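pasting input
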Amino acid sequence: MCKDLAVALVVQKYGGSSVATAERIRRVAERIVETKKQGHDVVVVCSAMGDTTDELLDLAEQVTDAPPAREMDMLLTSGERISNALVAMAIHALGEEARSFSGSQAGIITTGAHGTAKIIDVTPGRLREALDEGTIVLVAGFQGVSQDSKDVTTLGRGGSDTTAVALAAALKADVCEIYTDVDGIFSADPRIVSDAQKLDQISYEEMLEMAACGSKVLMLRCVEYARRYNVPVHVRSSYTDKIGTTVFGSMEDIPVEQAILTGVAHDRSEAKVTVVALPDEPGYAAKVFRAVADAEINIDMVLQNISKVDTGKTDITFTCPKTDLARAVEILTARQDEIGFAEILSDSEIGKVSLVGAGMKSHPGVTATFCEALANAGVNIDLISTSEIRISVLVRDTELDEAVQVLHKAFDLGGDEAAVVHGGTGR
Amino acid sequence: MCKDLAVALVVQKYGGSSVATAERIRRVAERIVETKKQGHDVVVVCSAMGDTTDELLDLAEQVTDAPPAREMDMLLTSGERISNALVAMAIHALGEEARSFSGSQAGIITTGAHGTAKIIDVTPGRLREALDEGTIVLVAGFQGVSQDSKDVTTLGRGGSDTTAVALAAALKADVCEIYTDVDGIFSADPRIVSDAQKLDQISYEEMLEMAACGSKVLMLRCVEYARRYNVPVHVRSSYTDKIGTTVFGSMEDIPVEQAILTGVAHDRSEAKVTVVALPDEPGYAAKVFRAVADAEINIDMVLQNISKVDTGKTDITFTCPKTDLARAVEILTARQDEIGFAEILSDSEIGKVSLVGAGMKSHPGVTATFCEALANAGVNIDLISTSEIRISVLVRDTELDEAVQVLHKAFDLGGDEAAVVHGGTGR
């Protein structure tokens, strides 16, 4: 083959909505073949078609209400095999060679934690061989094979993105393109803020904070993986040819003249728990968090204020997923005597709004502006938590949209054109 | 574990209709657990649920009209992974341990012929290990992994039966139970002959002839495999607890006092081609069959009668699948000059009726009775072909049912009770 340009290796990931129908599959195939025809080697990772995963979950539920995790993984991984085989067929129909591989065949080696396996190693020998033969390679996302038992595993939510980034790292790809139903990473959710701006570039650290604070475009684990292996991730729309957002580089690489703040993220998925009048002595807070951790409930924000005068007691507040709230309260209540608190308060009608930006470090006054903007809009702040490049607060869930809007405006994050919103998300 | 009885190893295979819904899956699980509780080790092979395979084929067709065979296998094999994982879940819900394995994990090593792979070897190390731990083992039927490319392969029609028999052979199982929607092997199709009798036992050779002549309960390849490895196959209904039919032993093992004839089989799937006025010299018939074989069309019956006086020409008639008829005629017509025949006649409105029985060898007069029975019913015989234990004739397709009925009656094959007919078949 004669190529004018140096051959690049491109990993592309397509979400479930991008491959939901035969027609969309053919469109995705066209884009893949186009990339190949530009002279690049192409590795593609597809999620399961549209609602396939939900349908399989529903089937399992009809059979039993406590399916073993190993079998759940065997069941769910079939969804990605189906979509990847179909995309391979569509590529063939366009005259290019394509071969689909399961996670196991692709050498995605994981821990044995079914449903939430972590990638330990990637041994892409078979993929490399296929690429060397000029074939387009497809890999079923979201799945791997456990190192010890050789059983089929799944990587949990957003797993296909992680598969794509892990393959890009192992194959030393030039870029990992994540095709999704939005045009890129925005300065806020375009469904809430009409002039939300698409970002051209964002550092790994900022993207991590955005993902941790509720931005759903990329999952936290995928960004962590990309950062560790320095894989440039290009988030873009599968419906247009527009350039999206590149996640790359550390905060230090971002030119100083660029906007000091990246965006506003929000999250409706959390609930708040307050443990009231806990003895303010070493070990008592640990007892609370051990109890919650034992139940495998993830804690996000934690706040402990100073002791109330003369009582020797303090209150601890934390947030956890709404879906785990009832269980968290139940577990703590069961250990009330042992832990020694007065009562448990819980609140699921909250929302979290966060401002993220690497420039925050060097620009004083951000916190003041943040609080003033919310106060002027009459939004009450329930709880504040910050990191070096982030400020997060809890507010009433009914006031969350307004909080996002006023912060976005106060920090002048808006662009010139209105953002385009498509429906549906992939896995 | 304390067991009163010697532990047996039982392989059970369930067809697609037996696992078509969550409710049926739970029922199948109950039967499996019951076998386990009797103290046996159990290996289960399930087909894909109900119409899953057709739905996947339909999806592929929507994407392209020429799907590559490798990807087709990747696509279709997901159906069996789904059903086997669900059955494993249902078994768990009943309190027994169960683990599902893909064909590749189960060590089903095949040729690389996608869509029609043959089993080369079975290396059931992981299954044996799981059995030794007291676990019920499930294996996705119809699939394996190619020895050379390590790609996923499928075994073609009836593949799950072959998987079950191959596992039974490799694991030295005491019996391979094939659960289906009929009560066993019958002396004729119960939908045509109301007093068709369920056979208690049938030899491998007789079963091979029955399968080759259109009996659809067991596929030819599965019986060949069972015979080669001497695996007793028990064909029975998944809807009842009744004993079915055991396929076992050679013709010589069948007691002499048993019925001399086994049953009447019929086949509507074939068409007839006659090559008229072919030179009756060495090599001309070979040219005809080479042309058909090159097109990968299977020939069943072949008949060449003596030359017509003085012409030096002869007619050759053969049968092939109806679905290949047009292609066969086209291929032969294209080579008419080269082969040197006068014309091609074809007829797809035919049916084949066969009488099978080991006793035929030692009982003269069977052919005479056979022809008399059809003549008395006014059924015209178009073509006759025999083996040591079989007589087959072609008749008009409109007269096929009657031919089956009168032969069944003439050889007194009927039982006392009417046969029960269920709907649907598995893969």
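fyi The CA atoms of residues 330 and 344 of chain B lie 10 Å apart.
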